[in-house]
Each structure stands twice: as C-alpha cells, then as structure tokens.
Design brief:
globular; single chain; EC 3.5.4.19; PRA-CH; 2 helices; mainly beta; about 10% helix; 6 strands; magnesium; Ubiquitin-like (UB roll); PRib_AMP_CycHydrolase_sf; magnesium ion binding
C-alpha cells in the first residue's frame, strides 16, 4: 500500500522487518506514559494529518483509530521522532482510559519494581 507520508520523514524511519515503528503515547501536561502501539508509514501519515492517534494492529492486520469504538480518544498535539528513528512519541490529550482493559494506562496493572 502506498502511503502519503512525507518522503523526508519516511527516510528517517528505522522500521522492523514488518515495516513498523514503535509509537508511545504520552499525556500532554503530565508526561504520563499511556500506551505503546505500532505504526507503519500510513498510520503515521494518518496521525499527522488528522491529529487522531492511528495505529496498525499486527494481530488484525488493519488500522485502528484510538477511541473509534470505545470513545477513549486521543487528540494528538505533537509527534516526535527519537534519535534512532525507530520510535515515535505522540503527545496527546487522552479521553478516559488509554488501555484496552479500561485502565488509565497500559502500565497500571503489573508493577515489576517500585520504590519502597
């Protein structure tokens, strides 16, 4: 599938063998890490043009817009590329839970190490 992603941006991406880059969503204002998902060039293009968090589902092999069915939307304020080009950071306003479980973040349920 051809993507409308700016070729200058596409050239900077370092993709997995499946053509994906990691995408981390962070709450604007607090810096809270909400979730991690995958994007290909088209998902990134859609996110940049619509300001809606748009991702690629590896299991379903299709695009999904965060909150399209749940109402738990993400309005994207910034998109940044990390220094290696293999991860994008989306700074968002998250409506309700970001995790598919309903939790605020995908990192709420399983703490492996915490300060005592």
């Amino acid at each position: 599938m051809s993507s409308g992603l700016d070729p200058a941006i596409a050239a900077r991406l370092k993709r997995t063998p499946d053509g994906l880059v990691a995408a981390v969503a962070q709450q604007r204002g607090t810096g809270e890490v909400l979730m991690m998902a995958w994007m290909d060039d088209e998902a990134l293009h859609r996110t940049l043009t619509t300001r809606k968090g748009t991702y690629y589902s590896r299991s379903r092999q299709q695009y999904w817009v965060k909150g399209e069915t749940s109402g738990h939307t993400q309005h994207v304020h910034e998109v940044r590329l990390d220094c290696d080009g293999d991860t994008v950071l989306l700074v968002v306003d998250q409506v309700d839970g970001a995790c598919h479980t309903g939790d605020r973040t995908c990192f709420d349920a399983d703490v492996l190490l915490a300060e005592s």
